[in-house]
Design a protein that fits this description.
5-stranded antiparallel beta sheet, Immunoglobulin-like, 7-stranded parallel beta sheet, alpha/beta, 565 residues, binds 1-deoxynojirimycin, Oligo-1,6-glucosidase, domain 2
């Protein structure tokens, strides 16, 4: 019998423990990762050129934020063609090359599916504009007549999540003011009508298109918003705000969205190994298992750590609660500290704590006020923030379940606050008149080298300006420094596999409110000191620590991994 090829070995799946359950998934924001053709915008060949970097980092998979044709009204989450690559980012052939390069290194690939809305450049929306009221083309979106004597008032006073009104009036083909369409996000992102079987069929085609090409899984954008039930007349924003999120809400987290995902699950299971999916669903925690269940998407992001202060009680509560939720759904838990939508965690932990309930909403806005001052007030504790971020990440990487990392956190990057208004790109910045500074600060292109036009990102000026202080965090600098954040991430990921034998943990009481200690099967202990007073090291060998432990203790804001047998 011929021996299996190395590729088969590297991607072999274990039926009992599918690859994704305890995977480390690294999020790439393609426009800001690496720019191979020197036009200032990161691209797919740029990812391929850094395949060895990803392999050395030790990630199991990458998740690529959208790379599809897009006018970039929302950083690519306004998709004009779901089955293609933006020509500025590459070609389908280059996508295949990237996939092959990553697979050859044992790295799986997850792509982003954006089903709630298309771009207004999408052929369907253009067709809807041309076809006029009452047409089948308009039925793919959510069009309504305006109200008032000349229908010039929107059908409802709803607000867009990026600020400003949530309905926009179109100009009909004959030049007259026409109907209105719903856009939960930017006006360039018209919401699709998921009651329309054609919409459902087209997304199924998209899932097959990428699965056939060999992608391993999908991240589903705002997975809780697709299906809607819009009565006539439409309720007001105030009436909507008063409704409970009980599965029957007209706009959010409706029970019937899971009919869509049951159909998708059947498609995922046609493949071997089955394609995976992770839901981006900002829903009440007791509803997360619905998305994470094996009959639905199979996994869901848990954003609770990302919304917590660096605080022992909050972290313990979040972990206990989410492991329980995961066991309820039969999925594994996911852990996230940073992504392309929030202020980087090194910066969050360098600002005064929120001091709120760990599951309180709105914490994702942490840093907003600081961003509005250009990052000057309050003064950012850069060193302390990074120290706490390293400790929090090592805590997270010690947990059972899968870890989602965001590009640049392995370099300990801070949020970039000093982006001039003229260079900003995020629609939420413009639609709120700068009240919400938006998410550009965590999307600044990565520094690979200490010099060069865009610090090794590419050969041209980067599409978002890199601050001078980025150079000190460049990959080039950190690779040769054993104490660097990059070296810490590499060491942790190399060791992590050995911790992930079972999906459970056992808390060990520490006698201190500000110190957490948990044990994993196989003699591993993870101890995090969230406080300032040193804590005595547990017995065993310190295998890794986020800050030095030379004095025999776990110092302030430090995590250690200890081998106890
Ligand atoms: C969630 C994505 O993470 C975010 O970046 C995007 O703006 C919205 N969904 C709309 O697609």
């Amino acid at each position: 019998m011929p021996s299996p090829s190395p590729l088969v070995d590297l991607l072999a799946d274990d039926v009992a423990a599918p690859w994704w359950r305890q995977a480390v998934v690294y999020q790439i924001y393609p426009r800001s990762f690496a720019d191979a053709d020197g036009d200032g915008l990161g691209d797919i060949p740029g990812v391929t050129s850094r395949a060895d970097y990803l392999a050395e980092l030790g990630v199991d998979a990458v998740w690529l934020s959208p790379f599809y044709p897009s006018a970039l009204a929302d950083g690519g989450y306004d998709v004009a063609d779901y089955r293609n690559v933006d020509p500025r980012l590459g070609t389908l052939a280059e996508f295949d090359e990237m996939l092959a390069a990553l697979h050859a290194r044992g790295i799986r690939v997850v792509v982003d599916i954006v089903p709630n809305h298309t771009s207004d450049d999408h052929a369907w929306f253009q067709e809807a504009l041309a076809a006029g009221p009452g047409s089948a083309a308009r039925e793919r979106y959510i069009f309504r007549d305006g109200t008032g004597p000349d229908a010039s008032t929107p059908p409802a006073d709803w607000e867009s999540l990026f600020g400003g009104p949530g309905w926009r009036q179109v100009t009909e083909a004959d030049g007259t003011p026409g109907q209105w369409y719903l856009h939960t996000f930017a006006p360039e992102q018209p919401d699709l009508n998921w009651d329309n079987p054609e919409v459902r069929a087209d997304f199924e085609k998209t899932l097959r298109f990428w699965s056939d090409r060999g992608v391993d899984g999908f991240r589903i954008d705002v997975a809780h918003m697709l299906t809607k039930d819009l009565p006539d007349p439409l309720p007001s924003q105030a009436e909507i705000d008063a409704l409970p999120f009980d599965g029957k809400h007209p706009l959010v987290d409706r029970d019937d969205v899971h009919e869509v995902y049951a159909a998708w699950r059947a498609i995922f299971d046609e493949y071997d190994p089955p394609r995976t999916a992770v839901a981006e669903a900002w829903v009440a925690s007791d509803r997360v298992p619905l998305y994470a269940s094996p009959s639905s998407l199979g996994q869901a992001f848990n954003f609770d750590l990302l919304q917590s202060d660096f605080d022992a009680a909050e972290f313990r509560d979040v972990v206990t609660h989410n492991l329980e939720l995961a066991s309820r759904s039969g999925s594994s838990s996911t852990w996230v500290l940073s992504n392309h939508d929030v202020v980087r965690h090194a910066t969050r932990y360098g600002l005064p704590p929120l001091g709120r309930d760990s599951r309180g909403r709105g914490a994702v806005k942490q840093g907003s006020a600081w961003l509005r001052t250009g990052g000057t007030d309050p003064e950012l504790d850069r060193e302390g923030g990074l120290r706490r971020a390293r400790a929090a990440t090592m805590f997270l990487l010690g947990l059972p379940g899968s870890a989602y990392l965001y590009q640049g956190e392995e370099l300990g990057l801070h949020e970039v606050a000093e982006i001039p208004a003229v260079e900003r790109q995020d629609p939420s910045f413009f639609r709120t008149g700068g009240d919400d500074m938006g998410r550009d600060g965590c999307r600044v292109p990565l520094p690979w080298t200490t010099d060069g036009e865009s610090l090794g990102f590419g050969s041209a000026h980067a599409h978002l300006p890199q601050p001078a202080w980025f150079a000190a965090s460049a990959v080039e600098v950190q690779e040769s420094d054993p104490q660097s954040t990059l070296s810490l991430y590499r060491a942790a990921l190399a060791l992590r596999e050995r911790l992930q034998t079972s999906e459970s943990l056992e808390w060990v009481e520490t006698g201190r409110d500000d110190v957490l200690h948990f044990r994993r099967e196989g003699g591993w202990s993870v101890v995090t000191n969230f406080g300032t007073e040193p804590f005595a090291l547990p017995a065993g060998d310190v295998v890794l620590s986020s800050s030095p432990t030379d004095d025999g203790s776990v110092g302030a804001a430090t995590t250690v991994w200890v081998r106890t047998i």
